[in-house]
Design a protein that fits this description.
By secondary structure, the chain is of the alpha/beta class. The chain folds into 3 domains: 3-144, no CATH class; 151-208, no CATH class; 220-493, Alkaline Phosphatase, subunit A (3-Layer(aba) Sandwich), CATH 3.40.720. It is 46% helix and 15% strand. A 6-stranded mixed sheet has the order 6-16-9-5-8-7, with helices on both faces. Strands 2-3-1-4 form a 4-stranded parallel sheet, sandwiched between helices. Helix 3 links the parallel strand 2 (45-48) and strand 3 (70-74). Helix 2 packs parallel to helix 15, helix 6 (113-123) packs across helix 7 (130-161) and helix 8 (169-185) crosses helix 11.
Length: 493
């Protein structure tokens, strides 16, 4: 265990109490990286917010999960209701508490966690004067920069050694995801990006040769494309089996790999396979393809209500009654009705975080903070003896602006969902062909039927603008998780 995190956890928690309420005026415990590390190393979730937000969590989560441990970070412990304070271990904490002889306490509060961590190893128990503190911190930052440089070189070398084989995509994407996560965490994604684009070019050739045939593949052994997920469940489960489909909108495979680590910490293991997003890789088509169990329709309006109808209609045709089917979205209370044999749960929280993120570093932190919440829902389903299948409709890619479309170029596009940052759907074949011919030398486009999709990491935004989005045929959008999670009787009683 990280020595500093271990020290912090031991200081603010006690074994005999599963809730700590911590007064933390410097905000150190509310940092995303600190919260993530505490959860990774101890399984304790750090919850920060107003007194009202803490109260809601106390009533809905703390009381509902008697085995879970929490750390509540409060700006005013004294104003919390008495029953909460009586249930908890109360303590005040500041990062300067761990550096009792460090003279410039304000300097400590300004530093990133990795600086604090290395500084703790070096000077935690010795006296540091005002001027010496600045000098030591600059040395630590220099050492971190050198280590990151070496790490980036190492990751790039690892990336170059991967045997890229899209016919065995599970192994390929798992290896890529591990390096992508490490590069994001070590601030060197830019250093491996060129190699990733080369790998994507290889993937585009594979798409041209293999992808469209998979849409009509036999689902008995594998759901090769998202439209085959429900037929796969039909082929591999009896009417008596309790099956839950968890669809996390916008979850790239590397984000799933972060979730998998959280699941493993809870003793949850997954049988990992992949499937491929529909093209264009947008929710209106790809998630619709999941819930139709066949080709999606252009004349479809994406909504939880319409998705619920598709889910119920599909399983009704398989012989299930209305009491044996249930669909839940983020808008619904996560309460499973008795007797449900086919359950769907769709969450768009991750997709919303993806679209609001400025870069992969930001999205990685948001993903790490989200993982405990979904993990708790998966644990609930396991306790109810569901076999869980977790998937998504599409991934995402860090995209760079090429140019915006002109008003004239938008005229002949199809209606809702026809125009995104990385795809175009047309109602006029002549105009589609015209756009393709005029621009194919400037931006790599996949042309098929009535649509175009961007093949590389470009997007229809102003040059110089960077966004995280989806809709194209990049491997980070299309190669997505389809994993099976079952109850381990030795753990889940």
């Amino acid at each position: 265990m990280d020595k500093l995190i271990d020290k912090i956890v031991r200081k603010i928690t006690v074994d005999y109490c599963r809730l700590s309420i911590v007064g933390n005026q410097d905000g150190f415990l509310t940092r995303d990286d600190v919260r993530r590390l505490i959860y990774q190393h101890s399984g304790i979730e750090v919850v920060a917010g107003s007194n009202l937000q803490l109260r809601i969590h106390y009533e809905l989560e703390y009381k509902s999960h008697p085995d879970a441990r929490y750390i509540y970070v409060s700006q005013s412990i004294e104003t919390l209701l008495a029953d909460m304070r009586q249930s908890a271990y109360l303590i005040k904490f500041s990062i300067s508490d761990l550096f009792p002889m460090f003279a410039d306490k304000s300097l400590l509060r300004k530093q990133d966690y990795e600086v604090i961590d290395k500084l703790y190893e070096q000077v935690a128990q010795r006296r540091v004067t005002m001027g010496e503190g600045t000098f030591l911190i600059e040395n630590v930052k220099h050492r971190i920069a050198e280590e990151k440089s070496k790490s980036c070189e190492h990751l790039l070398a690892q990336l170059q050694r991967i045997d890229i084989d899209w016919n065995h995509a599970e192994k390929t994407i798992a290896a890529l995801a591990r390096i992508i996560i490490q590069s994001i965490q070590n601030d060197c994604y830019d250093e491996i990006d060129e190699k990733l684009q080369s790998i994507n070019q290889n993937f585009q050739r594979w798409v041209d040769e293999h992808y469209f045939a998979m849409q009509n593949s036999n689902p008995q052994l594998k759901a090769q494309c998202v439209n085959k997920i429900l037929p796969y469940l039909v082929a591999n489960h009896s009417l008596e089996d309790r099956v839950a489909l968890v669809v996390v909108d916008g979850l790239a495979y590397w984000q799933y790999a972060i979730l998998r680590n959280y699941l493993q910490q809870q003793g949850i293991r997954a049988e990992e396979k992949i499937t491929f997003s529909w093209l264009p890789s947008i929710t209106m088509l790809s998630r619709q393809a999941i819930f139709r169990g066949t080709y999606p329709s252009q004349d479809y309006k994406q909504s939880p209500e319409n998705e619920r109808k598709l889910w119920m209609q599909y399983w009704q045709k398989q012989g299930f009654t209305s009491f044996e089917m249930q669909y839940l979205s983020d808008k619904d209370e996560f309460a499973i009705n008795e007797g449900v044999k086919r359950l769907a749960y769709v969450t768009v929280e991750m997709d919303e975080k993806m679209h609001s993120s400025t870069d992969y570093k930001d999205l990685c932190s948001l993903t790490e903070n989200w993982c405990p919440r979904l993990t708790e829902k998966i644990k609930t389903l396991l306790r109810l003896d569901y076999t869980i299948y977790l998937t998504t409709d599409h991934g995402n890619v860090l995209s760079h602006g090429w140019r915006k479309l002109s008003a004239v170029e938008k005229v002949f596009l199809y209606k809702d969902g026809s125009r995104g940052k990385r795809h175009l759907i047309y109602n006029n074949k002549v105009e589609q062909d015209s756009f393709f011919e005029k621009n194919k030398a400037k931006i790599p486009l996949l042309q098929h039927e009535d649509w175009l999709a961007v093949r590389n990491d470009a997007c229809f935004e102003n040059e110089g603008q960077t966004i995280i989005t989806h809709g194209g045929s990049h491997f980070m959008e299309m190669v997505i998780p389809f994993v099976k999670i079952e109850r381990n009787p030795r753990i889940w009683k």
